[in-house]
Amino acid sequence: MRLSFPRPWAFLACLFAAGVCAQPAPSLREATEAAWSLTPQARAAQQRQAELDARGRAAASFLAGPPSVGLSHRTDRVGSNGGLRETEAELSAPLWWPGVRGATAAQVDADRAALERQQILAKAKVAGEVRDVAAQAALAQVERQLALRKAEEAKSIAADVARRVKAGESARVDQLQAEGIAQQAAAAQAQADAALARLRAQWRALTGLQGIAPLDEVAGQPAENISVAAAQAAVSAAQAKLQLTAADRRDPLEVGVGVTRERPVFGAANERSVKLSVRIPLGSEGRNAPKLAAARAELDAAEAEAEAAQRGAEAERVAATGELEAARRAEAAAAQRARLTAEVQALIAKSYRLGESDLPTRLRAETERFEAELAHARAQVETRRAISKLNQAYGLLP
User: Fold this and answer.
1) Cα separation of 329 and 350, whole Å?
2) pLDDT of residue 20
């Protein structure tokens, strides 16, 4: 007796395929994190944080800006050429006006808080997309499963009718009807396969993952609405900007120290001197009025957006709660309908086997049972989707 062994690469391919199939599906949280890592906001977050850190260090500095160095040289060589030489070096630095440094630091803190809230809001939007695609995929999966089962049952009925026709117990028209139903079920299965494949590709594009996360959330408790919190943080940032604009009414004060080396004529000794300078800029209405108007307009817009976000959040919560209640009622009704149609189908199938019912009646019962089961499966998915929408409205991430 000869024993045959699979080729090494074929064996490894089988192991690899088994490993892929054995990989667990990711959770909604893992899928959300994966999708968030692919967004431009997530990739730019580190640099945005670095920008705020740099602004914070600048606000904490004693100087209002970088110091500057000035060099000058004076000579009479072009004119009388009497030997006049003068070289001057000066170091100057801008200083904060009272209140400007504290207002600048406050604006940095407000911008930091606003950035954190915006990042959370952007991540929540990604979570909403993940939840939506997961719900669509769950619906496509149950539709494909039911379509596959219907195709198998239709083939089984067609084969049974073919045996009856061959035995002379049924007419040829019954076989044609059964085969037509089987072909229709096969076409529906192909459409379900295509729909699921399209959603799998959409899921991979969104998350970069192969497995689709199950829609298995439970309804949580209301929390701070993310969009409202982000809008309120934007208001605080706009207020801080307005306060800084009101405090910063002129350019920074500049203090300088210089050293001068001078020779009046040929043969004279070099003279050295030290110079202290103060530059006091004067503010003007033309400089500050446009900045104040722009800051006030930004604050008004932020406050209006915060009010709109509050109204939208309340409406979203009310709508999500109503959708969940309606989905649960629809699921209960669909379950009852599926139970009744299954009982009817079983009775008609039995009477058909006994010769008490014709084929169209049995096919109609099979179709009604399938439609009821499909409606029930869809209702179950819609209930889970409504729970995800409610958690999204509550501001809860997966």
Assistant:
1) 32
2) 39
Q: In 3D, which of 140, 146, 129, 107 has the Cα closest to residue 38? A: 129
CB of 372 closer than 8 Å to CB of 334: yes
Over the chain (398 residues), what is each successive 10-residue block's mean pLDDT?
Answer: 38 37 79 95 91 91 88 77 80 90 93 94 95 95 93 89 84 87 92 95 95 91 88 95 90 89 75 87 80 94 95 94 96 96 92 84 90 94 95 90
Where does residue 306 rank: exposed (0-12), middle (13-18), buried (19+ CB within 10 A)?
buried
Which segments of 211-305 are extended strands (E)? 253-263, 271-279
381 class by beta-carbon count within 10 Å (0-12 exposed, 13-18 middle, 19+ buried): buried
Cα dist from 233 to 112, 114, 118, whole Å: 9, 5, 9
The Cα-based distances of 267 to 76, 221, 236, 273, 276 in angstroms read 15, 91, 68, 19, 28
Closest CA to 28 of 199, 206, 227: 206
Rounded Cα gap, residues 324 and 385, in angstroms: 9
Rounded to an integer, what distance in angstroms lies between the CA atom of residue 207 and that of residue 267? 82
Rounded distance between C-alpha atoms, residue 33 and residue 123, angstroms: 8
**Residue 131 and residue 32: Cα distance in Å, rounded?**
9
**CA atoms 119, 120, 122, 126: torsion sign:** positive
8 Å CB contact between 273 and 262: yes
Token pair of 313 as six digits: 């959040």
Q: Decide the pairing of beta strands 271-279 and 85-95.
A: unpaired
How high is the pLDDT of residue 249?
86
- Identify the CA nearest to 176 among candidates 186, 162, 155: 162
Does residue 386 contact residue 331 with C-beta atoms inside 8 Å? no
CA pair distance 297, 225, nearest whole angstrom: 25
Distance CA 161, CA 178 (A): 7
pTM, 2 dp:
0.81
The b-or-e profile of 359-372 (16+ CB within 10 A means b, else e) is beebbebbbbbbeb
